[in-house]
């Protein structure tokens, strides 16, 4: 059986890899679209970051607006814009992304079994996922991991070097929570 801690470990590793992929980019680079049709880093960060507060609300059983309809970052929205001013600085985007990641990790680590067993509070998701527990790996690992993979592909298309995968040391106390 997978534990919440194992999901948080993967979640932390995704964050570290995303930050490594973004580390050497200048503000102007994060809205470049090699070939003209790629999701650029600014849109990717905003899109996956849109789901961070939603995940916290999902665990709390609270309603939220459908992220698909977000004008700037939803998949039914306008798509990536070439204008950096629509997104803010790389530093502000990375800070929001990092903070959102930690909020999700804390929500996961403090969630009760009851919170995981609720149906998703968004009707569209409740049709596809019987419980929040069933949905979260898809949302947190598959969805975000796919978009972080787009960052890696974007780097290559932009003529940038690959990055080394960062340290994978678990956050303090994570392994002990499972063993205890």
CATH homology group: dinb family like domain
What does the overall shape look like? globular
CA distance, first residue to last residue:
16 Å
Helical element count? 7
**Count of the separate structural domains:** 1
Backbone CA Rg: 17 Å
How would you portray this structure in words?
- The protein has 180 residues and is mostly helical.
- The protein has one domain (4-179): Up-down Bundle (Four Helix Bundle (Hemerythrin (Met), subunit A)), CATH 1.20.120.
- Helix content is 57%, strand content 0%.
- The protein is built from 7 helices and no strands.
- It has helices at residues 4-22, 41-60, 90-110, 113-117, 123-128, 132-157, 174-179.
- α1 packs antiparallel against α3 (90-110), α1 runs parallel beside α6 (132-157) and α2 packs parallel to α3 (90-110).
- It is globular and about 45 Å long.
- The model has no long low-confidence stretch (mean pLDDT 95).
Summarize the structure.
This protein is mainly alpha-helical and 180 residues long. The chain is built from seven helices and no strands.
Write the layout of secondary structure elements.
Blueprint lengths: L3 H19 L18 H20 L29 H21 L2 H5 L5 H6 L3 H26 L16 H6 L1
Helix pairs in contact: 1-3, 1-6, 2-3, 2-6
Give the tags.
180 residues
């Amino acid at each position: 059986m997978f534990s919440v801690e194992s999901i948080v470990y993967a979640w932390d590793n995704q964050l570290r890899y995303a930050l490594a992929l973004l580390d050497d980019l200048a503000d102007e680079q994060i809205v470049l679209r090699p070939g003209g049709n790629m999701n650029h880093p600014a849109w990717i960060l905003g899109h996956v970051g849109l789901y961070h507060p939603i995940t916290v609300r999902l665990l709390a059983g609270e309603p939220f607006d459908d992220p698909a309809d977000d004008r700037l970052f939803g998949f039914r929205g306008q798509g990536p814009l070439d204008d950096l001013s629509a997104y803010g600085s790389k530093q502000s985007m990375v800070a929001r992304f990092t903070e959102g990641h930690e909020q999700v990790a804390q929500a996961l680590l403090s969630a009760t079994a009851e919170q995981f067993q609720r149906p998703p509070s968004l009707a569209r998701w409740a049709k596809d996922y019987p419980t929040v527990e069933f949905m979260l790996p898809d949302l947190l690992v598959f969805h975000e991991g796919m978009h972080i993979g787009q960052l890696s592909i974007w780097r290559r298309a932009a003529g940038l070097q690959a990055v080394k995968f960062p340290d994978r040391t678990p956050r303090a106390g994570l392994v002990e929570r499972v063993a205890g």
